[in-house]
Amino acid sequence: MGRRILIVEDETDICEILKEVLVEGGYDVDVVHSGEEGLEYLTNVPYDALIVDVRLSGSTSGIDIIKTYRAVQNRPKIIVMSATAKRFLGPTLEDHAVSDLVDKVLEKPGDLNPERFVNEINIVLGR
Question: Of 23, 64, 40, 4, which Cα lies nearest the Cα of 80?
Answer without folding.
Answer: 64
